[in-house]
Every structure is written in C-alpha cells, then in structure tokens.
Amino acid sequence: MAKRKRSGKASGGRIAGGGFNPQEQPAPKRRRRAYEGAMVSRLTSDWVTSSTSADAEIDGSLIRLRNRSRQLVRDNSYARQAIRAIGANVVGRGIRLQGRVPMQRGGGRLDQGLNGRIEAAWQQWSHKDRCHVAGKLSLPEILRLAMRSVAESGEVFIRVVPEAFGRSRVPLALEIIEADYCDEGKSSGPDAQGNEWRMGVKVNRWGRPISYAFRTRHPGDIVNGVGYATQEVPASEIIHLFVTERPGQTRGIPWMASAVKRLHHLAGYEEAEVVRARASSSLMGFITSPEGELQGDDVYDEERVSNFEPGVFKYLAPGESVSVPQLDAPDGQFEPFLRAMLRSVAAAIGCSYETVSRDFSQSNYSSSRLSLLEDREEWRTLQDWLIEHLLQPVYERWLAAAVGSGSLVLPGYEVLPERFEAVRWFPRGWAWVDPGKEVAAYKDAVRSGFKTQAQVVAESGGDLEDLLLARANEVDRAEQLGLQFDTNPAQVSGAGVTQARPPGSEQPGLADAQPDAGLESPEEEDAEDPDEIEEVES
Mind listing the pLDDT tens digit for each residue in 433-465? Predict the structure, then answer.
C-alpha cells in the first residue's frame, strides 16, 4: 500500500510538530468601542458636527445671532423680561464704593477722613454730566446699560476718554459703544511680529488685545448715503465686556443664542392660538337663499369680503356650501406647553422660569425660595464679574486722573498707588424671603462664629460701618430728645418692658444679664412689708 506523502503545512495553519503558524492564522476582528454619544447610526445620521475653534463658530453667526436677539427683545415679552431682570438684579440702583485706605501707623485701622474724601469725589464724578461723554447717563445707568447690552448683544465696548466733560475737573469720561461699531469682518493672518486681526480685534501671539477696528458710524444708522471709515483705537482706551465661554474666544455672543429659535417658534405658536381663538369666537353662521348674496357693502370691485365679526351671519350664493373646520383646540393644552417651552428658554438664558414668565401659580414657598436662591447665586457671580472687568479698572484710572489734575489730594499716592486703590464694592442685595426664620438663623450663625455681622449686612446690600454709625446717631438723638423705643436692647427687654435700673447701682451689667432686674411684678407691689407694719404699730 502506497504511503501518502505528508505536506509540511496542514489545514488550519498547523505545521509539522503540532504547532501553529501565526502568520497563517487569520487576524481576529477588533471590536470597536465608543461612547454612545459618539456612535453613528441611523438615529444620529443627521447630527452634523465640526471641530472648529470658538472664533470660527462665532465668525459666521455673530451678526445674525445679534440681530435676532435684538428683535426678540423688541417684540417678545419673555425675552424683554429676561434682559430687564438681568440688569435689575445685577446692578439695580448702582454699586457703591467704600474706601479701604489704611492708616500708615494705625495698626490696620482705616483712615476715615481720607476714605471719606475719596468716596465723596467718586460720588460727584458719577453724575451724568461728568462721567458720560454725552452727558446723558449716570454711572449706575451706564452699568445697567452695559449689563443689558452684554446679555442682549453678547458684548459691549466702553471707551475711556481722557477729557473732562461738564462740570467735572477730572479729565476722564466714559463712552459706551455698541458691538456693531467693531468691524467683525476684519480678520487676517499673523504678521511678522505675530499679531493678527480676529473679527476686528488685533491680538498678539498670546491673545492679548492690542487695538480695535471701529467704524466711525453705525452700519445701520438712519442717515442714508453717508459712508463710514474704520479707525484703529488702542486697547488701552477700550474695555471690552463679554463673558468668555471657550478658551481663545475673541468676541462675545448673545446669551439667548441657544433660545432664539425656540422663542421664535413660541411666538408663532402663540399668534396661531390667538388667531384660532378669534376665528372660533367670531364665526356665527351662514344663510343660503335662492337670490344669493346681495350686492352691498360686502362686495368691492366684484371681490367678496370674507372677514369674520362676532354676531354676523354670512349669505351664500345659490349652490354654495360651507365646510367649517374644527377650530376648538383640546382643553388645557396651551398652558402646559407654554410652561415647558419657557422653562427651556429660561434655562438657556440663565434665569429661573418664574423670573422670565412672572408666573408663580405653579410654585409654593419651598420651590420659590429655592428658585430665588439659585438666581441670586448667578446674580452674585455676574456682580463680581462686572466689578472685576469694569468698575475696578475705571476706578483705578479715575483715581490717577483725579490725583494728576489736583482734584483729589492724596499724599503718598505717587510712591504707593496700590495703597489707595484698595476699595470695597457693595452691589445690590436682596430682601430675605422669610425674615423671621432667616434673621433668627443669622443671629445664631453670628453667635456661633460661623459668620460675622459684616457678612450678614453685606448679603442684604448694606455696609456694617455705615450701619453702626447710623445706629449710634439714632440712639444718641433719641436720648437727647428723651425718647425711648424697644429697638434699643440695652434699655428694653425682649418683651418690650423698660429696664429701669436703680439709682447708684454698682452692677451696670445686671440689667443685661437679667432683663427684668429692678422691676417688680404687680403682686409684689401690692404685698405689704412685715418690717414696715411693725414700725407703724410701735
């Protein structure tokens, strides 16, 4: 029997000796793993994304986003309320300055006289004819307008003009410039020094602004036929206000960018509901007659007028029939849908639903309090941002201009200006939601050492130093007039009873420790003293 010659290779990649040849083994397929949000399927095929920088995304959308945001603020009541709420809560009636210049040999105490002069000079300069180049806006109004412009248009420019205006002797004033003036079309690559133009802003290789390209006129001004030129303004004169959302961002975008489409559709939905309600309530009925419709006021130029009015019956021509559509919408669908849409809009803008809609019908005390506290944290963050980016830089330039012009005399400012630039800003605060509970909680926190009185007063927008001075003046004046109120705990107990101390008492703190010390109850006053009875009988 002939023997079969073995081959050196066997099926399956087995070689002589019983081993496997890795080169002959087919490579296994790798199982690709990915995040679910990154997977491509028939459900995500329409999800188009791109890897673009912040400026690349803004460049093609800035003008249209800005115009749509402004149109919504003009015509949409919810957008207008959101912008109004941002300005009112972040700025309110203004942000007050308090000087914090310490005494040179005072052991950390503040120089009250010097700080008082700085505060008085700043307050005088804050009037509209002195701090604004056009003489129309006071400093609180400039702050409110700047905050509203940042929210509505995404950004605003403040130009610091080194000139004296109005009755001011300080050569400094502010010009508020709308975002349209900055030429967003001016972009070019880096030059020999590494500087480049990015949407009207010239930056160095580190991204620090060097200058701005401003139009001499607004591109949408009412004056027709008048062209405009572009001038380059150094960055040292410009304060560019916008909230940075991505690293490397050069221009700001409106805060309603993610809500403009929803607000536009919501406005159309509300209009359709109003038209449906009008048509449903106005249409009454139709009448058919052999003669048809009479030639009268309802026909003009052989065209039939088909407007609807309440209580009107329309005539039909012979052979005509009417098919009336069902105009009644399902009951109770409008308000839930509107609330759901407004919650999404409020989340996009950064406000609560109650703030945007002014609707508190669906909230109770706990939910309203939680909503207010959440909003206030956002407002405090924006207050700190506004102080850091606008108020503090303006104050430092104003202080240098006031000292340089002789309007404010500060000995030693030229040697150590940082000593005089130390100030504290007091933005607006808010009233307590539940005063009884919150005052008691603050009292316990202060007594336990978890908070100071200054922190408690500052949270409501006040200043402890001013409060103590006003309180001392109030108590002194009341004593001068011989008046006594239960607002003075040193004179009145918690029950409102006067703490009368016996003359020549050697324990002045006894009344404080024992609120009713020195007072006799009515029963004790009527009781007879046994010693006095014995003296009378003897």
Answer: 777 777 888 888 888 888 888 888 877 777 787
Cα torsion 262, 267, 272, 274: sign: positive
**3-state DSSP helix/strand/coil % of the chain, to nearest 5:** 40, 10, 45
In single-letter form, the type of residue at position 530 comes to P
Tokens 């679910």: give the residue. 36
In the block, residue with structure tokens 């004033």:
173
Distance between CA atoms of 513 and 509, rounded to whole angstroms? 6
Q: Where are the alpha helices (H) located in 242-294, listed in sequence order?
A: 260-282
pLDDT in tens, 6-33: 444 444 444 444 555 656 666 666 666 6
Residue closest to 126 by CA, chosen among 144, 140, 112: 140
Closest by CA to 252, choosing from 159, 178, 187, 188, is 178
The pTM of the full predicted model, rounded to 2 decimals, is 0.75
- Contact 279/308 with Cβ under 8 angstroms? yes
Structure tokens at 404: 């340089």
Taking Cα atoms as reference points, which of 73, 85, 54 lies closest to residue 350?
85
Which DSSP string do the residues of 85-134 spell out, in sequence order? HHHHHHTTT--EEEE-PBPTTSTT-B-HHHHHHHHHHHHHHTSHHHHBTT
Amino acid at 271: E
Residue written as tokens 């199982």? 31
Radius of gyration of the chain (CA): 38
Query: Which residue in 191, 213, 189, 190 sits closest to 200, CA to CA?
Result: 213
Q: What gap in Å lies between CA 478 and CA 514, rounded to an integer?
A: 24
In this structure, the strands spanning 283-288 and 312-316 are: parallel
Tokens 């129309």 appear where? 136
Where is 314: in which H helix or E strand?
Answer: strand 312-316
- Note whether 385 and 243 are within 8 A (CB): yes
